[in-house]
Amino acid sequence: AAVKTVSTTPFSGQKPGTSGLRKKVKVFAQPHYLENFVQAVFDSIGDVAGKTLVLGGDGRYHNRTAIQTILKMAAANGFARVMVGRGGILSTPAASAVIRKYKTFGGIILSASHNPGGPLEDFGIKYNIPAGGPAPEAITEAIHARTEVIGAYRIVEAADVDLDTLGTRSLGGMEVQVFDPVADYAELMESLFDFAAIRAAFASGLRMKFDAMHAVTGPYATEILERRLGAPAGTVMNGVPLEDFGHGHPDPNLVHAHDLVEALTGEGAPDFGAASDGDGDRNMILGRDFYVTPSDSLAVLAANATLCPGYRNGLKGIARSMPTSAAPDRVAAKLGIPAWETPTGWKFFGTLLDAGLATFCGEESFGTGSDHVREKDGLWAVLAWLNVLAVRKQSVADIVTAHWTEYGRNVYSRHDYEGIDAAAAEGLMEHLRGLPLKGRKLGAYTVAFNDDFAYTDPVDGSVSKKQGIRVVFEDGSRIVFRLSGTGTEGATLRVYIERFEPDPTRHHIDPQTALADLIAIARDLAEIEARTGRQEPTVIT
Ligand code: VG1
Ligand code: CO
């Protein structure tokens, strides 16, 4: 096929955020928009000639169209082979696993994660490096810089490739290998967890619901939970991936995964519930009438890691993002292993995992994972919990409350104000940045220090600034303010609130009650209502 060089002009704003470039489908569908970004990626990652690329996405609207374009551009740019998940499907953690297993020159993942999909909704793209993780900031900055000066892209003129039949075909001299997106991933999970114990637990009556939210984990969960582990048919809900996620918001939290929350409520509810997001990297964990915060989930899994065969020899360290609660740090201290605190976004865990400084990682935003891949991994967390439940034979609630009794409880909540005016949001952050708070008394709390979190990567020395305003009190309580880097409309303010409660008689108190005074302080301090017009957050987790 003929290679065409198409002249183009730069689009402004092709700057990857917390996890890749996310925009409305309408933006991506403009002529040259996707092409410019993809060419900028190929121009920024070194010599691609003769290399292999992994390609796939969460199945949302525009996924197949984008894949056809990227295949033709990969061929024109000299790649020898592209491995595509059948149907264009590949969860984010499965993409990471496949990049690592086949030692490819990285991969391109098409997803806007938990953001809604459809012609009027969101699309996204990101490049993952050969280690399997999201490109670090140096690379995303180079890609962005390239998009600002790009003058041409290369593409072959050829017919679309069949993505639905397994096997290898040729595209302009390049090999396109359509592979089973589930098999390698399922095999990896089987190598980490005690499938025999989990199978026995299901056989003796453990009941579970997994909500795939009509997103990418449907086929993965059905294969692993129902086929390989013998959970009854119907354990997986909403298991067929749809281009618009059934008009849903594929975000596994208490607001958007309401079907699951309802299913886990009341007498006769299953023992265990879990959900994952659009691209399969997030997880929410529920017991009967019990919600496990992602921060607690990481702490509990770390404390119980040796029950899972893949982690029988213990953990090298635990890493968490800065706004994540300090519950995992307490486990690390007890285990005598390092606890790391990184900026928000999985890309910051990569160097720690590569260097063998951490084994488990997590974020308060429903992200949990380990060194088995370089992305957070929703089903991994679900299987880790199943493994722990199968061995300990206790309820989710009993395991978590026993954990709090042993370690104390880091009472935690996040309040999101979505879709606020971008200028107002910037103004609010600027206002907080300048506040002289050290030593000031706010209600019952005295400010120990406040800053804008900056991080120096302990492995490669790279520095990331302005990663969130921290107000830390003398008793260790914290309020953190950040603006989201994944949204596509206006701005989203995230307020993270945390207080340590050592007293077990107070562990049952609802976090919104236990944190009420800090929540009020946060609102006052940031002047949220005056600056955004909002009296209440849109989402509380
Ligand atoms: C959010 C979360 C962050 C997560 C990121 C990508 O980013 O807070 O912890 O890593 O989403 O997750 P932000 O900048 O909107 O707060 V995913 O599942 O969208 O790839
Ligand atoms: Co995601």
UniProtKB/TrEMBL annotation:
Its EC number is 5.4.2.2. Residues 1-17 have a biased composition (Polar residues). PROSITE patterns: PGM_PMM (PS00710). It is an enzyme of class 5 (isomerase). One of its GO terms (biological process) is carbohydrate metabolic process. Transmembrane segments: none annotated. One of its GO terms (molecular function) is magnesium ion binding. Keywords: Isomerase, Magnesium, Metal-binding, Phosphoprotein. It holds the Pfam family PGM1_C_vert_fung. Residues 14-149, 184-286, 295-407 form the Alpha-D-phosphohexomutase alpha/beta/alpha domain. GO terms for cellular component: cytosol. Residues 1-19 are annotated as: Disordered. Its cofactor is Mg(2+). Coiled coil: none annotated. Belongs to the phosphohexose mutase family. PANTHER family: PHOSPHOGLUCOMUTASE, PHOSPHOHEXOMUTASE FAMILY MEMBER. This is phosphoglucomutase (alpha-D-glucose-1,6-bisphosphate-dependent). It comes from Paramagnetospirillum caucaseum.
